[in-house]
Amino acid sequence: MRVTLVYSDSLAAYDLGPDHPFRPERFTRAVEMMHKRDLIGPNGMRVVMPTPATDEDLLRVHDADYIKVVKDLSASPRTLWPRHGIGPGDTPAFAGMHDASALVAGAAITAIREVLDGRADRAFNIAGGLHHAHRDRAAGFCVYNDPAVGIAWALDRDPGLRVAYVDIDAHHGDGVQEAFWNEPRVLTVSMHESGRYLFPGTGFETETGGPDAPGSALNVPMPPYAGDSEYARAFAERVKPAVRAFAPDLLVTQNGADAHRADPLTTLGLTLRGYSALVESLVELSTEVTQGRMVAHGGGGYAWEDTVPRAWTALAYSLLGRPVPADLIAEE
Ligand SMILES: [Zn+2]
Hints:
- This protein is an alpha/beta fold.
- It has a single domain (3-323), classed as Histone deacetylase domain (Arginase, Chain A, 3-Layer(aba) Sandwich).
- The protein is built from nine helices and eight strands.
- The protein has helices at 25-36, 55-59, 64-75, 97-116, 146-157, 174-179, 228-246, 272-289, 307-319, and strands spanning 3-6, 46-48, 122-125, 163-167, 186-193, 217-222, 250-254, 294-297.
- An eight-stranded parallel β-sheet has the order 2-1-3-8-7-4-5-6, with helices on both faces.
- It is globular.
- The structure holds zinc ion.
- Residues 169-171, 256, 258, 300 line the site of zinc ion.
- Zinc ion (ZN) binds next to loops.
């Protein structure tokens, strides 16, 4: 399998501060681990540098007013109250915020372009997956919605494209669902800890798509402490049939690793073995449904010292079509 890793050190500039739980180390450590295991380079994934998203790219998903506020706060980050969701709270302003966020969003386009141009079968935007950003506001640590910016770019380029987006982050993929709510060419699927218990409080089974796109959203809320077997069953019974029936040309995934039982921000029960089985199921699904064409994003993950790097390294093995070594996903 030809796999592209979209990566450059500058992606770590998306940094909400030293006390913030959303650490760039979640992916920089993963990339270090992948290097050690020879998953990057001639024997593994080819690295392609991301190109920043332009305003035109961002405007497919975000309002001009919002982009202007991000740019203003990026130049002068001091603010006493949140503006369009940016400020004291979940998504603080930081110097250079616009450029850092536009680079992550551009990385999603770079990844999808690699696959659509046929240079890669699969691509991995490890710094991306900022699925909570909305049209006109930041939320949940996310400024620009890179998965949505990538998909919107692809639809603009190829209007006949059908895309299935599957999000296994512990939190509902609300921003991506919102972006394509009324878009029949995109199926958004989210498996997450039920909104009854966890941010952002949405993602119920009754949310199924807008008037022009009925059935284009599928939500699979999981109860607290749902573990490997619950996830495997929900994937087999709900997610897989829906993606098969949609018959997409491309599978886009958000692979947040915060449904792991060690995650400090959520209350789910996946082990590394269960997470790895789940991403392997996604890769198998792409082999079956989209001739292997798949764009994977990172996402959340707050056990960033060890668990998240191991989870995403396991994902890299699966993307490359290689078995995941037992020692990588062994836990006590
Ligand atoms: Zn999350």
